[in-house]
Amino acid sequence: MKGFPAKIFSLVFVAISACTSQSNKLTLPSNMSELVQDESKLPVLVYVRQNSPPLESYHSFMVDPITVFQVEDLDILITQNDVERLKEQFHQKVEIELIKAGLKIVDSPQQDTLKISIALSNLRAPISLSREMATALGKQFELGRVTITAAFSQASSDKVMAVVMDKSRGENILSGTSVSNFVDIEVALDSWAVKVSEVIGSAHRSASCPILKSEKWYAWLDKFSKGNGQYRLNINGEVIMPNPGFAMQWSVGPTDRMRPPNLRLNLLPKAPDLMAIQVLTTVPVKYYLENPISEFNSVSIFCGEKLLSRIEGVTLTD
User: Fold this and answer.
1) According to the model, what pLDDT value does residue 137 have?
2) How far apart are CA 232 and CA 188, in angstroms?
3) Is the pLDDT of residue 6 over 70?
4) What is the mean pLDDT of the chain?
5) Using an 8 Å Cβ cutoff, are 202 and 305 in contact?
6) How many domains does the chain have?
7) Does some domain include residue 140?
8) CA 178 to CA 163: how far, in whole Å?
9) Cα distances (Å, whole numbers) of residue 218 to 77, 221, 243, 309
10) CATH number for the domain harbouring residue 37
11) Which domain covers residue 94, as residue numbers?
12) Same domain for 65 and 194?
């Protein structure tokens, strides 16, 4: 239990206990009343604190030691060594996947640190039998399963920002040397670590673009220079920025081999060097590109990993 905040452990215990009677709801403590369920994530149970900072505002991460309780002993005994090995492997997997997503792991809390505290419960690893064999032996066919509950908190204050509960069942993964469906649990934990890291990493990649909203995108080609057979691609649009100090730059991405081709353009807002008043500002953007192509199947405009617009059927105008 060492290293796992008592406040968060209490929350996890209450959450898991509540789920035994309600499959799609958690009963949270009164001091967590600001956490609201995001029902769009069902069957995974996700509760988020209202007005909590976005994931991209955290630039470092801590992973608490994994806590395990409620191990179910069936036909095969899950030993304490099994549990300790599982905890260590899962802890390492979560940290490795966060690092692979380009995120920073720290050992001590900082102002911008998000702490991830994880509890595993309802571990179930029955003997690995096929359905036919289980029937012949008069046993109920079972798969390995585990419930993963995670609390995401501000490391500097231990204030819980979100709680996620995910119940996972195995896929009947059998091998010649397998004696139980313990492997189902390991696969489920690995998958969870990858998914969580992808969500956080994606939020950070999208945050690399400061554009809050964009609209009114148009694209067309005209005959800019008839003499040398060049055409001109024209791009018009509007973006909403957090302040008026951004300078707009563009870069041309790859054109594929389709006929007509698809083109990617990258809009690169450059932040001001000096302090700027923070006020939402609508900025008209324009771009011109001379090229020998008289038609594009599509033109996609990106800002970082964020797709601003995809304009289909860009053709020559009179």
Assistant:
1) 43
2) 52
3) no
4) 78
5) yes
6) 2
7) yes
8) 34
9) 65, 11, 24, 9
10) 3.40.50
11) 6-207
12) yes
